[in-house]
Amino acid sequence: MSNIVRLIIACVVMGAGVTLCAFGFWGWGILVFLIGGLVLLTFFFNENMLVAQYYLRKENSEEAEKWLMKITDYEKQLFKGQHGYYNLLVGLIESRKAPLKSEKYFKKAISLGMTMSHNIALAKLSLAGISMAKRNKREAQQYLQEAAKEDKNKLLAEQIKMMKGQMAQMDKQQVQRGGYRNF
Questions:
Q1: Among 41, 136, 52, 138, which Cα is nearest to 94's?
Q2: Rounded distance, CA 94 to CA 164, Å?
Q3: pLDDT digits (tens, 9 = 90+) for 97-151
Q4: Confidence grade of residue 84 (pLDDT, cut at 50, 70, 90)
Q5: How far is 172 from 160, CA to CA, in rounded Å?
Q6: Is the dihedral of CA 156, 46, 105, 90 positive or negative?
Q7: What distance in Å separates the CA atoms of residue 53 and residue 118, rounded to the nearest whole number?
Q8: Cα angle for residues 170, 176, 181 (degrees, 5° grid)
Q9: Residue 121: closest CA among 68, 174, 157
Q10: Is the dihedral of CA 82, 87, 90, 91 positive or negative?
Q11: What's the pTM value of the predicted model, to 2 decimals?
């Protein structure tokens, strides 16, 4: 259902609630008004994305993917502020199947913008991991620094530290293969 239709339905239902209150049916009017508020809430927070986030937290990516695929055209079905989050969720699901293919979703999520800084940090941390897999150390360091800046609440501090440690190991392996070892 497109967002315009949701908005119209919410306005009609809330109007019906106000009308019921005006005619003296306070109980039914408040109930109908609250239902209209719930429909209005789905304008800003799509129920399919909420359920997909729930399943991702429970580590059930197949079920999360099933719920995300119910959104056929995210530009019409989602509020503009959710476009970045949709691409982030698709990127997280795709990264479990084919990590290198998920890069485009994370970049698109960052370009579309997200309001919460820890989600931007998560996308940049994922991009750093992809860059490390491609053996692009400079780009990985850049993404790690940007992720550390965006992670204001230090929710991803442990993962960033772990990724920096992996990058240091990558340097050691490169030195050993490159012939710089001393015997």
A1: 52
A2: 23
A3: 888 889 999 999 999 988 888 889 999 999 999 998 888 888 989 998 998 888 8
A4: very high
A5: 19
A6: positive
A7: 15
A8: 140
A9: 157
A10: negative
A11: 0.78
